[in-house]
Amino acid sequence: MNFEAFILGTGGMMPLPGRNLTSVLLRREGDLFLFDCGEATQISLKKLNLKWKKINSIFISHMHADHVTGLPGMLMLSSQVDRDEPLTIFGPGKIKEFVEANRRILDMYINYEIQVEVVDAPGAIIETDAYEVKAFALNHTKPCYGYSFTEKKRPGVFYPDKAEDLKISRGPLWAKLQSGESIELEHGVIVHPDQVLGEKRSGRKFSYVTDTLYSETIAGNVSNSDLFVCEGMFEEALSDSAKEKRHLTARQAGIIAKNAGGIRRLGLIHYSPRYMDRDLKILLSEAKEEFPDTVLCRDRDCFDITHTD
Fold first, then answer.
1. How far is residue 151 from each of residues 111, 132, 265, measured CA to CA in Å?
2. SS3 at position 217
């Protein structure tokens, strides 16, 4: 069951050649979920050959231009790809006004349903049988939220030898058992998933945090993430500037990952434009001193989100 994160943009404040503004796409079993939509998001989607018509939810962290300027173009583009499903946009404060104003002023042709959900309190904003998306408050110059995407428990490991011992033919019946369904064989014999599967496995988790002062409360919301994407906008020498602008340093991102517990990988993102690509190693080094399993996110990186337990 695939679960992947595509880094569409890593820049903060302004785009640079080779560095779009911040945006991350999550793909799970063909469904796409977009976190923030900075300028030039469409370019990375096109270069990665991702089908944006499959995006069913967009999560906006806050109403600053470098996180939402790509949204009007995405809305118009989706009318050109025979979209059938509704699109839900989540975000704080003025997200509904922003969407409605752009549709009106740009006289957008929209041939699908757009639902806008204002996030005004922490908690679950999507819950299905398969996964849950939660919002949690951050501390920025405007209302701002981080997001976590957590799968519910998954069926255990499938053991083919047990299925063969029960005389179950390879094919659709195996697939049903692997997905947790019971099956009926000839002569009315019922086979339950626990006869061929191991113990249920914990679900995978992705967390996204950007544009915030350091807070000890963040760690609890992102704990046990298989991939934690977090801003590391400044080096520690500029911690006063980070505090004034209510951003994290790379070292603080590492501290959050270390204190959270269960983080498998930290991906830094949302770099200040003062850092050219050759300078990003400064941010990486400082974060790794706190949390060794840290990587620099680059535009159009892809991360396979997986774990075994």
1. 31, 6, 17
2. helix
Q: Is 66 known to be catalytic?
A: yes
How far apart (Å, rounded) are the C-alpha atoms in residues 85 and 97?
22
What is d(CA 11, CA 303) in angstroms, rounded to the nearest whole number? 18
Distance, in Å, from the CA atom of 188 to the CA atom of 232, rounded to the nearest integer, reads 59
CA atoms of 233 and 111, how far apart (whole Å): 38
Asked if residues 88 and 56 have their Cβ atoms less than 8 Å apart, the reply is yes
Yes or no: say if 231 and 211 are a contact pair by the CB < 8 Å rule. yes
Q: One of 31, 36, 66, 279 is an active-site residue; which one? A: 66
Give the pLDDT confidence score for residue 308 in this predicted structure. Answer: 53
Q: Where are the domains of the chain?
A: 3-154+201-304, 160-195
Beta strands per DSSP E along 36-182: 55-59, 87-91, 114-118, 123-127, 131-139, 143-151
CATH of 3-154+201-304, one of 2.60.120.10, 3.60.21.70, 2.30.30.100, 3.60.15.10: 3.60.15.10
pTM of the model: 0.89
| Per-residue pLDDT at 307 | 67
- Identify which of 1-15, 146-160, 212-226 has the greatest average pLDDT: 212-226
Percent of the chain at pLDDT > 70 equals 99
Whole-angstrom Cα distance, residue 185 to residue 176?
Answer: 12
Q: In the beta sheet, which residues pair with residue 137?
A: 145
Residue 112: exposure state from Cβ atoms within 10 A (0-12, 13-18, ≥19): middle
3-class DSSP state of 12 = coil
